[in-house]
Amino acid sequence: MLRRALTGAGARLAAIIAVFGPGMITSNVDNDAGGIYTYSLCGARYGYRLLWILLPVTLALIVVQEMCARMGTVTGKGLADLIREEFGLRITFLLMMAVLFTNLGNAAADFAGLASALEVVGVSRYVAVPLGAFFIWYLIVFGTYKTAEKVFLVACLVYFAYPISAVLAKPDWSEAIRGTITPSIPWDLGGVSMVVGIIGTTIAPWMQFYLQSSIVEKESRISDYKGVRLDVVLGSIVAVVVAFFIVVACAATLHRAGIFQIASGAEAAEALAPLAGAAAKLLFAFGLAVASLFAACILPLSTAYSVCEGLGLEAGVNRRFKEAPEFYWLYTGIIAASAGMILIPRVPLLPIILISQILNGLLLPVVLVFMALLIRRRSLMGEFVNGPVQDVVTWTTTAALVALAIAMAVTSALPGAAPGY
Amino acid sequence: MSRTHAMVHLSEVLGIPVHDAEGVRLGKLDDLRVDSQRGIVDRIVIRGGGAVRTAAWSAVETFSPEHRRVALVETAAAQSWPGPEADTLCLKRDVLDRQIIDTQGRKVVKVNDIELEPSGQSLVLRRVEVGLAGLVRRLLSGLVSPRLLRRLADGLSQQGIPWDYVAMVEPGTSRIRLKVHQQIATMHPADLADILEDLNRVERKRVMAALDPETAAQALSEAEPSVQAAVVEAMHVEQAADVLEEMAPDEAADILGDLPEERLQAVLDAMEEEEADEVRGLLVFKEDSAGGLMTSDFFQAKAGWTVGETLAMLQKVDDDIIPEMDEIPLSDDAGKLVGIVPLVRLVRAPGGRPVTEFMRRETRAVTTAAPFKDVVERFEKYHLRALAVVDEFNDLKGIINIEDVLSRLVKGD
Hints:
The complex is a heterodimer.
Chain A: H1 8-19, H2 22-29, H3 33-46, H4 54-75, H5 79-87, H6 89-120, H7 125-142, H8 145-157, H9 161-168, H10 173-181, H11 189-202, H12 205-217, H13 225-257, H14 265-276, H15 278-311, H16 325-343, H17 349-374, H18 378-381, H19 388-413
Helix pairs in contact in A: 1-13, 2-8, 2-12, 2-13, 3-11, 3-13, 4-12, 4-13, 4-17, 4-19, 5-6, 5-15, 6-7, 6-14, 6-15, 6-16, 6-17, 7-15, 7-16, 9-13, 9-15, 11-19, 12-15, 13-14, 14-15, 15-16, 17-19
Chain B: E1 2-3, E2 8-9, H1 10-13, E3 17-19, E4 25-35, E5 40-48, E6 51-56, E7 60-64, E8 69-72, E9 79-80, E10 89-90, H2 91-95, E11 99-102, E12 107-110, E13 113-119, E14 122-129, H3 132-140, H4 146-154, E15 160-162, E16 166-168, H5 174-184, H6 189-198, H7 201-210, H8 213-222, H9 225-234, H10 237-246, H11 249-256, H12 261-270, H13 273-283, H14 290-293, E17 301-302, H15 307-315, E18 327-331, E19 337-342, H16 343-348, E20 360-361, E21 366-367, H17 372-382, E22 386-390, E23 396-401, H18 402-411
Helix pairs in contact in B: 3-4, 6-8, 7-9, 8-10, 10-12, 11-13
């Protein structure tokens, strides 16, 4: 192609495609085992009634992710790196330890999701988990960012399984639409914790770190910023649309049949079979398996990025093992630990996952406040600093999420609440 | 005057209570200001009681990290401090936790701690600590006893970089920038390119700003293509233009070709007319064709010259194209390629003879549209080091050097 072959619309499209990826991947990975379970439970327990929450959640997700994307593009530094330079080493270190522990629990939950999803189709966890773990380990350790991203983007397509299984479940679309546009909250502990759980599972601390690090690793430039923003907005919308269909699928089947309680995403898939057919069950389980594996790869990756950035160590999928040993050992260690946890017979998985969920809730406010402070600094952001309107939006979103995160940590600790797994 | 005699770390002294001569507590030691030219501490910064004050190092009576005690000669020694002056370096604010360039190890590192050594009346900046020991010291200082901490830290890997080899990536001021410039300008361009690749956008901009255009151009031409475009995009338009003027036009065209349209035009407009025109002429070729590979900045002799005239003209040639002159293309008055004279034959020929007597007819030249594959094959087949490029009318347009071919092969696009 000519050096300047592309002009006008063609060039603009090429520029957008070039920076596309991090936003789409981050948002979609967010629909991991824990997310899918929360949405399934929401549909089973409350039918279409809570669908309206997804609209404000979409907005909050876009606001938060856009901040990270902007910081990553403008400063060329990851979030952990910026927090260290601006707030000092000790705060960063504590934050990193919390991130490490939280993500370990989350990754374990995802390997559990992979195991239970494949058990639906009769594959033993002692086959599924080691194979899955090896695959994602190999992909990152021997791949470059480009190859990994391609695999991730293909994995995003798997989420189409959910709209299809939702359609197979023959839902009452008019009810679904009514639930989407009329807010109502079931005012009891279960209901409130469900609302909080949905928001908490959709906006998690690791996402901000991962998104910013991957944008930095991709070397997106300021001239690409419009494309970067589009990637984030589209990714957020796609992720929430998928969540919508998961709720609808379970509302149309489980809720209608009076099954209000499920213990895992895999159980939701099992329960779908008699109600919506074997195809719906298989699709649902397949989606859960791929989503879990996908998240089990990205969570350790995000952790390795953050910890290495915070401690000033070399990091990045584009580096060789020799160039960034700490980064790769950390990644390897987290995968080994979280996959290994699932293979221990009679391991008390639920407490591990609950604790990491509570930590998630406690960590999110801290991360959001740091972000909101960083993005106001002209010395970092230059002309891309938050304007007055953006500042109001940022702080409003932050305040709302902080309140919810604290509520979530509290409700997770109470008996009778919806567990977020 | 009682001051410590042992090596101290910044992490061990920050936060120590500061008292005046009467023993009144003024606050805590918040930062050390450094005379960056001499590398010694010249002021201390004290924060306490809601105010920030400063005192000259000469007014410090006691400086004893072991006893966690800093005392001043007299009360009046501490004045209120309006904040850091533009031309100074404060260790905590400007160096700690920042990225620096280790010009000896040729890499980018983060500063975990700073080592200072008392020497006579002064406290001298010795090394910045980038290893695990510094991290541990930072994390645990104030939480465990200083002695235990020393023992812990001494057992860990000490990776220090002597202050003379530290180049700040974020030189806030002209004086510091000068120091940075002196340090990194001595590095090999290929090492500088590696460092540029490790830095982020803002840091790249700063490092490039600290270099003179020629050094910057050399470093830039050694970097990966994707990094080149990102660096140029990060720079100010005028500066980018200055640097690109220093590069071979074909390299400049390669980089500019990767930039967004507006930026490309802005940089071209800021460049000198002549250089910009050359680059514009090259931008029309496909990147992987002979036209995209060639440089239009080369020496050619006229077919009407004598050997002596040609050699005289050679005296006036720019230094930067000399390495590419094993063979000299000859063109007639209309600019058409006539033949090629190897430099060695020219040097040994009698000065009064026409230069055409010593040339060979050039039948191997490629056209600007020739694909990269053909160019490589021709180099290999005829064992060439340089190859003439002509347009469809046989007008001499440029020269491809073996080096351009090699680097394209290695980068393998």
